[in-house]
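Q: My labmate handed me this sequence with no annotations at all. I'd like to see what the chain might look like in three dimensions before we decide whether it's worth expressing. Could you predict it?
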Amino acid sequence: MFMRQKYFVHYKFLPGLGFYGFGLVHMLGGLTRTATAALRALLDAGTLSNLPAGFKSRGLRVRDDEEPLMPGEFRDVDAPGGDLRNALMPLPYKGPDGTLFQLLGYVVDAGRRFAAIADMKMGEGSQANPVGTTMALLEQGSKVMSAIHKRCHNAQKEEFELLAKLFASALPPEYPYNVAGGNRAIKATDFDERVDVQPISDPNIFSMSQRIMLAQTQLQLAQSNPQIHNLYEAYRRMYMALGVQQVEAILPPPAKPTPLDPGLENAQSLRNQSLVVFPEQDHAAHIEAHRAFMSSFLVRNNPQVMTILQAHIVEHMSAEARNEVMLEVGPQLQKESAKFGGQVPPELQAQFQAQIEKQVAIKVAAKIDEAVAEEQEALGFGAQQQDPLVAIKQRELDLEQQKLNLDAADDLADKELEKERLSYKKSYDAQKIQQQYDIQDQRTAVQLARLNASKKR
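A: Here is what I predict for the chain of 457 residues:
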């Protein structure tokens, strides 16, 4: 197929109708010419209205009439009829027009706004605005310039492609070329279609202020939650966005962890620093040293240090179990690798990995059970002894039951007392009623005796 080859790359400010695009001068040219024409018209109108020309009558005689009048000059005139006003007629020049002046201001403002499309809206808004609002304002104000930057990025990519094609067709098979890291040989085949040569710049970021704002936002997010972020990388990107040279001189990279002896690890745990386990360490010795340190009075009364050391011991157990499993499975893995010429198939390698993880889990579980049993035996916990928390809870339940029993006894006593009170009241009421009956009987007997005595009389 006959494909058209490109020999030219055009860095366009704005796309045009054909190959050539429009530049900033093309876009501002019409506005500039309009503003210039309006300004010249205003100046001409002002000049002619300040020094007008006109007609004079034929019989009017002016001395030295071939020479123009100078500003502030008066000459002798012979006017027929004695009326100079009737002998002179100025041309009706119009002064500067207000509408034309407004048009000039509109054109200048339009050109200023168009020329300022690369300005960043850094002063708008408030510092209290959220990051999303600030980024939205920045994006809204940089749409045009971002599109221009993307077109320039694409043009540079096309230029790199042309250079790669040129190198692929012009370079010899091998050409000695010094590159960073040592002497290498660059060849024509290095620029074939297998590798794309393109710019590494970000087409979405076209200004240093954008880079600084993006890096500052990343740093703020990292500082808000440093546990899940890399603060060193956030600070390094901030310095890189600011254009600082030799960042390592003022921001040294964090030191890589190195194997430490158990004593130094115990000291780091007292400073609440994290501990790292390395496969080549003597895990049994480290576990024994950490357990002995955990039995001290200072560590037993510091839950945070106990947590760090306990987690570190579990990591040592896991590393020790993995080393034991690798010693057991290693010869078998080497035999299988030798069968396939030193390269184990991925599916077989996945099976070996699953088997290794299974055996590691079994060994870790056994080691943890053994460690827990030894710890309970060392601290005096037997199979028959109850957990302190369970004992405290049982004591609380016993006290609660005693309280319920006392309340029940009080209720029973109150009921017995109320029963006795009711019985006494009932007996008292019965006696009182009987006394009333007796008194009534006696009164009746007295009245009968009196009645009988009166009858006998």
